[in-house]
Amino acid sequence: MYCKIQNMRSEGFSQRQVTKISGINRNTVRKYWDMTPDEYDELILTPAKKSRMEQHKEQILSWLRDYPRVTAAQVYDWLQERHQITLTEGSIRKYVKKLRIEYDIKEQEDNQRDYQSVEDPPMGYQMQVDIGITSVFDVYSRKHKAESIRDCTA
Q1: Is there a contact between 53 and 60 (Cβ–Cβ < 8 Å)?
Q2: Cβ atoms within 10 Å of 115's Cβ, excluding its own
Q3: 127, 134, 128, 129: which is closest to 148 by C-alpha?
Q4: Which of 87, 67, 79, 13 shows the shortest CA–CA distance to 5?
Q5: Is-above-0.85 flag for pTM?
Q6: Structural domain boundaries of the chain?
Q7: Structure confidence by residue, pLDDT tens digits, 5-44
Q8: What's the CA gap between 148 and 59, in Å, rounded?
Q9: Interaxial angle between packed helices 72-83 and 89-102, expressed in degrees from 0 to 180 and rounded to the nearest 10
């Protein structure tokens, strides 16, 4: 990418033209436009920034290996409880996904259903009750009062 941008620059193209022709993002073109080859080499050779999750990597891997069905949300909760982390749940979700791919830890799916359909019983043998509370305004006392409602469907 750097070479392509520098070649087009030496041929007299503007930054805008390089962006349109090559399809490279304009910020990337701007970044590499005035960069010397030495600066580019230095940029490439600098190690990537480590994630703040790296210090918890072994703990997360042990959880993923011991409990393959654990979700990233559960990992987030466990880290909050044990280490009071300040990372977002989305960051942890991405990191857990990366670890699952890197260490080939598959989420085990439970194929057995916890429920099954039941044949409908004859009429009059089954009833559904929905219990709730509603607030009613009493005109005489000028107060709201809560009443229990039972909606029975037979």
Answers
A1: yes
A2: 5
A3: 134
A4: 13
A5: no
A6: 2-45, 52-102
A7: 999 999 999 999 999 999 999 999 999 999 999 999 988 8
A8: 49
A9: 110
